[in-house]
Structures are given as C-alpha cells and as structure tokens.
C-alpha cells in the first residue's frame, strides 16, 4: 500500500451521472498541465486553443465506490494518438484519492460537495479549508441520440517521479442535453477558467464507467 486509504484494485467499475462542459482554452493557461503532461505528449490545439473538459460527477452505490468528483481534463495526444490528461481533480473519497494517484497517476485531492435541487441541479464544491472551488447550476434535458453511447476515455498522466502511466477507460451511458452555468471563483484553483463560456455541454446519465481496464507504464 502506497497511500493512507485502502482502495480496490483496477479496473474500477463505477456507475453514476456526469455533467460535462467543454471549453476552448490556450494550453498555457491551464493550471497544473505542465506537471501532469507526460513526456512526448502535447495538448491538441486548433488556432492556439486547446479543448478542456470540466465535469461534476456523482458515482452511485451500485458501483465499486461511491463518491462525488469535480475534474478538469485536457485533450492531448502522443504522436497524434488522442488521449486525455487530468491536471486538476477533487473527490470526496479517500479511497478514490489514494487509488487514483497510485494506480493511474491522477492527482486527486479531497473536497466536500453540496448537491441540491430537483429538475434544476445545484452543486458546490469546496476544498478542505472550506474555500470555494466551483459552483454549478444545471438542467438536464431531452435525449440527444437514441440508445446508449460508449465513449473511450484513455488517460495519460505524468507521475511525480516523471514516469508515464496510460490507462484505457470507457464511459457508456445515455446522452442528454445540458443547460449549465459554471461559477468559478477567480481567486480559487479554477480561476484560470473563470469567465469562459462552454462551447458544448452534455449530461451522461445512468452511466457505466470502466476505469483502468488496461494500464501501460513507462
């Protein structure tokens, strides 16, 4: 054991709902990206802007772990092979924090989450000191496509010892419209995204997530 909390071995099979937005951001503006990006990997850019996902996730008791999560993910590539690199992420579970760091090099930190509302969801995430990280107001709408959609989500992370860990992951769920408002305090850890408008948003509901089906380290 390499961390303070016990965690299940990979792959993790989780269930939950994801509220996701995509932003266009110059990569140099993304906090923590240099430390998280493995050697040989680069942000995928168009006209100097990269693509950054920000998501609130609630993992259900029907999966291996139950917790809440807020993450920032950057679309990257290794010799034109697309991947995702996560420079910032917060969770409510010490087991998820420990496992994410040890198994896949994902720099998880602990935070608290407050969820409220019915048809209109309101979520607030705060760090261990009680400072605000993000507030989300969201309304999930009608189905975007028939049936369930499977999305590959391969991650590539740089560990503190500069080694690289790649994990092959999949998210499968029902894709629905999402109307969102993100409030990111400019003085907080997501202040580098403050004021940016999403170019697209969607909810993935009743999702099945398989994380770490195959792991490669170098």
Report on the architecture of this protein:
By secondary structure, the chain is mostly beta strands. The chain has two helices and 13 strands, in the order βαβββββαβββββββ. The protein has one domain (12-217): Acetoacetate decarboxylase-like. 7% of the residues lie in helices and 58% in strands.
Describe the structure concisely for a colleague.
With 218 residues, the protein is mainly β.
- Rg over CA atoms, rounded to whole Å, is 16 Å
The SS-based structural class is mainly beta
Question: Beta-sheet strand percentage?
Answer: over 45%
Mean pLDDT: 95
Give the fraction of residues assigned to helices. Answer: under 10%
Main pleated sheet = 9 strands, mixed, barrel
Secondary-structure element order, as H and E? Answer: EHEEEEEHEEEEEEE
So, CATH architecture? Answer: Beta Barrel
**Low-confidence parts:** none
Strand order of the largest sheet: 1-4-5-6-7-8-9-12-13
Task: Return the CATH class.
Answer: Mainly Beta
Protein name: Acetoacetate decarboxylase
Organism: Cellulomonas gilvus (strain ATCC 13127 / NRRL B-14078) (Cellvibrio gilvus)
GO molecular function: lyase activity
């Amino acid at each position: 054991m390499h961390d303070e909390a016990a965690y299940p071995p990979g792959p993790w099979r989780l269930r939950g709902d994801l509220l996701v937005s995509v932003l266009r951001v110059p990569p140099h503006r993304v906090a923590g990206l240099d430390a998280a990006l493995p050697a040989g990997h680069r942000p995928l850019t168009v006209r100097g802007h990269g693509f950054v996902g920000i998501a609130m996730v609630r993992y259900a008791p029907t999966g291996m772990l139950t917790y809440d999560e807020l993450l920032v993910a950057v679309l990257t590539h290794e010799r034109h092979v697309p991947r995702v690199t996560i420079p910032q992420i917060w969770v409510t579970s010490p087991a998820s924090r420990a496992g994410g760091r040890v198994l896949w090099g994902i720099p998880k930190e602990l935070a608290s989450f407050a969820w409220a509302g019915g048809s209109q969801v309101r979520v607030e995430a705060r760090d261990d000191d009680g400072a605000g990280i993000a507030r989300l107001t969201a309304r999930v709408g009608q189905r975007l496509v028939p049936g369930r959609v499977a999305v590959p989500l391969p991650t590539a992370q740089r560990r503190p010892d500069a080694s690289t860990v790649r994990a092959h992951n999949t998210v499968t769920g029902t894709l629905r419209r999402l109307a969102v408002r993100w409030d990111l305090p400019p003085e907080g850890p997501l202040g580098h995204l403050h004021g940016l408008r999403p170019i697209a948003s969607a909810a993935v509901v009743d999702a099945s997530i398989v994380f770490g089906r195959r792991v490669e380290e170098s």
